[in-house]
Amino acid sequence: MSQPRANLAAALVLGAPLVAVLAALAVGGVFIAAIGESPLEIYALMFHEAFGTGYGLGQTLFKTTPLLFTGLAVSLAFRAGLFNIGVESQMYLGGFAAALVGAYAPLPGVLLLPAALLAAAVAGSAWAAIPGGLKARFGSHEVINTIMLNFIALALVSWVGRGLFEPATVRTRDVAAAAWLPRLDRVLPALAGSPANFSLLIGLLLAVGVGVLLFRTRVGFELRALGLNAPAAQAAGVAIGRTQVLAMALSGALAGLGGVNFVLGYKHYFELEFTGGAGFIGIAVALLGRNHPLGVLLAALFFGGLSHGALVINQRVPRELVNVLQGLVILFAISAQALTARFVRRWS
Amino acid sequence: MLAPTVSLRDITRTCGTVLANDRVSLELIPGQVHAIVGENGAGKSTLMKVLYGLFQPDSGQILVDDRPVRLPDPEAAMRLGLGMVHQHFMLVDTLTVAENVVLGREPTRGAGAFDHARAEREVGALAERYGLPVDPRARIGQLSVGAQQRVEILKALYRGARVLILDEPTAVLTPQEVDELFVVLRALQRDGASIVLITHKLAEVKALADQVTVMRAGRVVGGGRVADCSVEAIAEWMVGRVLVPLQQRSARAPGATQLQAHALEVADDRGLPAVRGISFQVRAGEVLGLAGIDGNGQHELLEALAGLRGPRAGRIEIAGRVVSGRDAREHRQAGLAHIPADRLRRGLVPDMTLAENLVLGRQREASHGPWLGGRALNERARGPLTEFDIRPPEPTARAAQLSGGNQQKLIAARELGTRNADAPQIRAILAAHPTRGVDLGAIEFLHGQLLAARDAGRAVLLVSSELSEILALSDRILVMYEGRIVHETTPATTDERALGQFMTGRHSPGAELTRPSPTGSPR
Predict the structure, then answer these.
(1) Within its chain, how far is the Cα of B240 from the centroid?
(2) Whole-number CA gyration radius for chain B
(3) Is the CB of residue A229 less than 8 Å away from at least one CB of chain B?
(4) According to the per-residue pLDDT averaged within each range, which of B281-285, B341-345, B494-498 is highest?
């Protein structure tokens, strides 16, 4: 393959998600026009709300944060050839564990925050390791098992919560102030009033960490080899089962830590169903971000902006437009991926 | 002789960069069994896919009843009376035999309702007519593999097949089931059907076929009336004689035993015995050639030796360490290198870079603490890439972008390469079909590398279906047939003809075949 062609192929691979986004916006524009509004005006309005003001940007970053964690979680498992659909409940349990430690553990102040973070990671990790272990030991499909564990986690927390929650509420006691993650407006006054908090920085660090793990360590190498060609990985001496469990456990840890954005950074308590589907949107984020940490970050920002921008267009077009856009992006991202793969194959 | 039902004329078809069929011509006569034989990758399956409408030929003509036809899809092939029995059955496990057979052509009554009773009646009658014992009411999932295959045949017949293509039909059957299948096929033959039998088992060709066509590297290399062809002749056509220049080789006294199998028994994917008690030793500085026609247990033997398939009984030792029952990593750590037969499935990760592929299997030795990757990894690749003349020599190119020959060199560079300081002391090398599908220049190069490894004191087990390769490289030769070693010899005291006889199980001292010595290595 000649160099210009190789470059073009690379550009196609990288550009495909962008094309998908533009195509989704174009088709979404048709819907907006059908309602009798101007697509450009609506999009401009959304964009301004999501990124145009300090407060709006802060809100967007706040909504980006959990998607960054869940997107990283899904993509890490995906790199090992595993489809972790249980990110929602891993995040849920992570948040619950963080709240339990933050609100009830008799620990000195300096230890409280690290302990709460650790609890979140361990809870998500353990919950994800279950389907990982089942896959490794019995070959039972992780998709089925993670879906089932989603329901179990929901019920489990509600059941435990009955004796724990504050009277007449579905939430825990407040987390001790020592376990709070500070808001970002403390260091970035421009974001004043928005709930964006230091969870975002943890997420950014983890994104770098996932990149280093995948592309600079032996474990990441084995994990990717397993995901790309399991028989060859086996022949190369990769311990398939152990690597699968490890990938799921790491994925779950990322998801679990995502729960602290709400619990330690925003409301400072755990509330039933606080995740609100961030785990599932994480799948779309990983897809659009092509399972690359940088791509995941950009995709999370896009979905976060979409989510916050939706608030201002409510009076002119139905809010559900944003759901339509989300769906369209996923649809186009999948087809763009298939199309570019075909082009690249033909040319190489 | 009757006029042919189907004629293929000068069919050419490329798959990727490979010329899978090169001007192949073939005639199918009613009432005859036509065997198409050849090693894996010879182009048999491609040809049948062309005939069944799954592939379009790049050029050439297909005639059915002397009229040129186009077969854009299997539906069109079926309409013309061409039926296929795939190696992997296409049946719905939860439906009954009758339901599977009529699927897509269901008899109906009244307002389009499925006429269950009629379906069962028709299928029962069809089964009886051709002597295919199968209960129309049985569920597929409860049937034996042999019975499922009969259902596949019924399906084709129900759709009016006059030409029945069977893709390695006996590969999945027990010996009894093979006999039953042959009875069925003879009945169909008497009824005037043309039967195409794709196989690489020559005994079957002799037992059943009227005509044989031998394919090799996409071309028809021989064939004719089976009665006129000896098994030896067919075997010679199959394995061919690529002119491999003999390499200069030093006389060398072999050293200590590095790879040893003792009374090894290995099962295939279905749990049937594939390796039936094999013992051998490969010593340092020695190439042991293992000759045999594909499907006689070499695949399972190699997987066991590489730690990819647990043996059922027996022992494997690498450099004195017992590794049987351990995983691939422990085999490698004991000093094993492995050039797998299937390079894209086992040998490479096509979507990874050349640098990454060059470290695959050596990732532990090549990592610095937990770290592996980046510039150091790419730099590490430059030596092997130039030494083995891999093009393009770009560490960051993906393995999928390489030609087949370069992919093979990439694997060889990794497994044989001595330049990398981080490579452990390699003691034994499994080289499975190391030059399959590779051009002549690369063949010569790879042979040179294998001999260099031998001269460097490694024990090499060479498995190949190319007899010329076995003869050119080996110090000793074993012949494998039906899971056993039936012959041991040296290149100086044998030739392709003699080896071919042992490979096809036709050598006269029959006692060797039926009662092998306990070690499996008759002297």
Answers:
(1) 16
(2) 25
(3) yes
(4) B281-285
| Contact between B371 and A216 using a beta-carbon 8 Å cutoff | yes
What is the pLDDT, as a whole number, of residue B242?
A: 53
CA distance linking residue A126 with residue A86, whole number of Å = 12
Query: What's the gap between Cα B351 and its chain centre?
Result: 24
Digit-coded pLDDT (tens) for B428-479: 999 998 987 676 677 888 998 999 899 888 999 999 877 888 998 999 999 9
- Token look-up 């000759």 returns B291
Q: Residue B515: which pLDDT band, with cuts at 50, 70 and 90?
A: very low
Asked if B137 has any chain A CB less than 8 Å from its own CB, the reply is no
Q: Chain B residue with minimal CA distance to A218?
A: B372
User: Which chain A residues contact residue B16 at CB under 8 A?
Assistant: none
The torsion angles phi and psi of A52, rounded to 5 degrees, stand at -85, -25
The yes-or-no verdict on residue A312 having pLDDT over 70 is yes
Closest to B435 measured CA to CA, from B427, B447, B424: B447
Decide if pLDDT at B510 tops 60: no
| Nearest by CB: B345 against A216, A225, A232 | A232
CA–CA gap between residue A190 and residue A57 (Å, rounded): 9
Q: Which of B412, B463, B430, B410 is nearest to B307 (CA)?
A: B430
* Rounded Cα distance, B374 and B321, in Å: 35
**E strand map for B273-387:** 273-283, 286-291, 313-318, 321-322, 336-339
| Neighbouring-strand partners of residue B224 | B212
- Using a CB–CB cutoff of 8 Å, tell me whether A177 touches chain B: no
- Residue-wise over A243-279: b if at least 16 C-beta within 10 A, else e? bbbbbbbbbbbbbbbbbbbbbbbbbbbbbbebbeebb
Q: What is the mean pLDDT of residues A296-325?
A: 90
Of the partner residues A6, A217, A231, the one whose CB lies closest to the CB of residue B345:
A231
Rounded to a whole number, what is the distance in angstroms from the first to the last CA of chain A?
Answer: 6
pLDDT tens for B239-248 read 765 555 555 5
CA A332 to chain centre: 19
pLDDT at B511: 36
Q: Which of A37-46, A337-346, B131-140, B494-503 has the highest mean pLDDT?
A: A37-46
CA B162/CA B29 separation, integer angstroms: 10
User: Is residue B315 pLDDT above 60, yes or no?
Assistant: yes
Q: Which residues contact B319 (CB under 8 A, 6 or more apart)?
A: B258, B259, B334, B335, B427, B428
User: Which site among A210, A217, A243 would you substitute to test the B interface, given the most B Cβ atoms closer than 10 Å to its Cβ?
Assistant: A217
Looking at per-residue confidence, does B232 or B119 come out higher? B119
Would strands B67-69 and B108-109 be described as parallel, antiparallel, or unpaired?
Answer: unpaired
The 3-class SS string of B231-292 reads: HHHHHHHHHCCCCCCCCCCCCCCCCCEEEEEEEEEEECCCCCEEEEEEEEEEECCEEEEEEC
| Mean pLDDT of the residues in chain B | 86
What Cα–Cα distance (Å) separates residue B413 from each residue in A248, B190, B319, B333?
34, 55, 22, 18
- Mean pLDDT, all residues of chain A: 92
Cα A225 to Cα B357: distance, rounded to the nearest angstrom: 9
Instruction: Please enumerate in sequence order all residues whose Cβ is within 8 A of that of B355, keeping only pairs 6 or more positions apart, or say none.
Output: B377, B378, B380, B381, B395, B396
Between residues B126 and B176, which one has the greater pLDDT? B126
Among residues B401, B378, B377, which one has the least CA distance to residue B391? B401
Contact A1 B347 (CB under 8 A): no
Residue A266 has pLDDT above 60, yes or no: yes
Contact (Cβ atoms closer than 8 angstroms) between residue A322 and residue A60 = no
Neighbour order of strands in the sheet with B67-69: B18-28, B6-15, B59-64, B67-69
> Which of B349, B394, B410, B430 should we substitute to test contact with A (largest number of A Cβ atoms within 10 Å)?
B349
Interchain CB distance below 8 Å, B351 and A221: no
Residue B374 has its nearest CB partner, among A216, A233, A234, at A216
